[in-house]
Amino acid sequence: MTTEPSLTTEEFNEQMRIRMEKRARLLERGEDAYQVLPERSSSLGEIRKRFADLEAGDSTGENVSVVGRVVFLRNTGKLCFATLQEGDGTRLQAMLSLAAVGEESLADWKTTVDLGDHVQVSGEVISSRRGELSVMAVSWKMASKALRPLPTLHAGVNEETRVRQRYVDLMVREEAREMVRTRAAITRSIRETLHSHQYVEVETPILQLVHGGAAARPFETHVNAFDQKMTLRIALELYLKRAVVGGIDRVYEIGRIFRNEGVDSTHSPEFTMLECYEAYADQFVMAERMKEIILNCADLLGSRQLESAEGTIDLDGEWRWLGVYPGLSESVGQEITPETDKATLLALAKEREISVDQNWDEEKLVLELFSEIVEPTLLQPTFVYDYPPSAQPLARPHRGNPRLIEAWDLIIGGMERGTAFSELIDPVIQRERLVEQSRRAAAGDDEAMQLDEDFLRALEYGAPPMGGIGLGIDRLVMLFTSAGIRETILFPLLKPELG
Prior knowledge:
By secondary structure, the chain is of the alpha+beta class. The protein contains 16 helices and 18 strands. Helix 6 (166-172) packs across helix 7, helix 7 packs across helix 9 and helix 10 (324-332) crosses helix 12.
């Protein structure tokens, strides 16, 4: 059982018992402990805005009915005070005096209301002698009785409770509510940017017969109606490309992705991706789209300079282009090319104490070395490009070098934020790539893609040249908030509670 952080188990159980008794007394008196629709003439925010200039000690002569959660209580003699809070964090004081509400109602307030309860208060809007905007109550009712004690605001809520009981986090921390608003603003800005370029938003299947579009291990499930094993999608790509083949030249989806992999400060098995595809575009057009998307988000949030633990990230500065092989060569102090042999790469990994699999081929080793040695050093926005083909089986061969593909990853703050390709539309080469992926899967590679015959059939009808983007929404929010991934996801996937 989870208790409120500042209470012992015994104290918590006793408070729960007392609150249950108060609920029972309300019901015994024929009163509703959980109203359907409490009387509410104004929100707390509306009253704050309308009477912001009210002088200390003044009255308005205007009666209102408000509802809010009780986050502070002070019951003293003939005058009681409460602070009410509504969903966006706005607060307003309620005052209950013996003269205004009567002896019975005031006594009932003192014996019934606890921190965390939602109450409805009716009365005149005034400013107290100390200048606190208030509702001087003439009546009150319980709107929703809280059975669990509210966490103590000054004591805070530990990280585990914040992510496991996000509803509690939202009650007591403005930062948690601000994270929700920031994420919503970022998602809205992305949509507005894409709509300005005539993109069409669509929805594609989450349950899929064939998993593909990324190198990732899928979650498996079973559809009883078809007696068919299926997987949850690991990417949005293949269905969005089908839409482009069909004539939706600019298409996107912001959707949930599921990958049955590890959990850490930058990875979650369930996360949100933007994927968009544009006919008659390539990786460089998509780089401009990505830059516009991120700068528009920055402008909406108020700054293109972001503070991180490693230093200031300047989105207004140059967005560098860095080749995989030149970047790795510079970092290790020796030339690394597509022709570099496996022994040399294994020796580099051993020298730098980077864990690798001896069975990996040269391309896989280069990718691992780059991600461990170079990527963490890239603080400023950097398009890492000219990858080896195995990095992205769905990207087209490089127009100038057949040993490379046309793809980039955007690294900001030492972390990948998104990726893009000049998309592979040749069905013959795509079949070869997916057959190779199938061979890897048969050899035990849990992350290899499956051979998707319907996707290949779509390409065989003739796909227009296109560019595509994949952008992690969670990682973009992390960039703008300096928070871990568990803080940016409202309800992250967690291990079950013990006991």
